[in-house]
Input
Amino acid sequence: MKPRWRRWLAGTLLITLGATGCGIGDRVGGDQPPATSDGKGEIAGNLTVAWWGGDSRNKKTNAVIDLFEAQHAGVSTERQSADYGNYFDRLNVQASSGSLPCAVQMQGRQLNDYTKRKVLLPLDEMVAAGTIDTSEIPPAVLEAGKGTDGKLYFIPYGAAYDAIAINTTIAERAGLDPLPERYTWPEFLDYARLAKAAVDQDTYVLGDLGGTINAFNAWTLGQGLELFNAEGKIGITKEQLTEYWTMWKQLLDEGVTIPPQVAAEEPVGSDQGYVATGKLMINGIPGNALFNAQQTLTGHDAGELMTYRYPDGSAGMGNAVIPSGFGIAANCANVPTAAAFIDFFTNDAEAGKSFASDNGAATNQQVLEAQLNDPELPELKKHELELYQQIVADEPPYIVYPPGYNATFQQSFERNWDEIAFGRLTIQQAVDAFFTETNATLG
Output
């Protein structure tokens, strides 16, 4: 998870661009939809590709691009990468000037900030024409590449999910049985309370999930609730959010969750956080962070980790998948090459082996099976991928995130929970503030 100040900066920049007369749609698209295309044509010439990631992902992405260039001798690529926060900061500026990279990495949580301003090409005709093959992508995963208008704007190549990580060594020492594969929210909270009573007093039990947006999304979806209505505003009621925050405030007051002052000092990154360093028994982490977090934990000689899907709600599973993939900019002058690159990145067996599910599990089911059958695949990485398969097999719900989700909904949610946790606002005051702030600009 990136630092909150950086999420605030990215969101503020996006709002500023949209409000100053130099918005993302002013120079590209405007009120007119971008041209559609079946993406067929000569695969040649220059292609600009942009993605987010650290050193490891950059190395793997560059390796895939090298493979693509090797198959298409007439193609040269200009490559742009940055960490998650800086990536979207730069992307917003590029979008405002009509200079988006041709093949641009997207994620569902930001997608409609761009579709709203019509700076991405719909890809439906390319899929229908067979230019981009999506036949091996589970339908529930492919749906996450659609905008609020129902059109497909990016092709997911990797699908992440959120998970509950547990230090099983601490649990075993405390005499606790493992969690079952499927469990409910009441069962999860009972487990945390049992752990609080059983573990050493100097061990923190449960992370501060009251302000963790992905935990809230899972709880909401598991109750069968809609996060957003047809207008892109908040879809839940104040009473429902009050119920959720009351649940976490009680755990905080009981000392089950980590104190807010300690949570505020947690290092950034799932591989450096308190679970990864052995200071915390249970927390939410990205499902694809287990392997790296365990490497850190092993370095501290602090136990073994295992991940579980989020608890089920009264309506069933709440785990949503969070795919990342590539779209094509409306200003792209080399659509056939961009389409060919997206198809290659998503479906080529050698590309999949080289990228190794670095940004979520490979969405192409054949590519994923090849990775799972690799005898050199570490067991924890195999668990990450198999847990993704289990979630997808249950046809997970998906969220259509409205424009402004990151900049308004997520940041207001986190900020107002902090006000509760630090005792500066009552739950009702924070709920009222969240609804007022968020609905003013969301959608």
In short: Residues 161-319+402-441 form a domain with the D-Maltodextrin-Binding Protein; domain 2 fold (CATH 3.40.190.10). The radius of gyration is 22 Å.
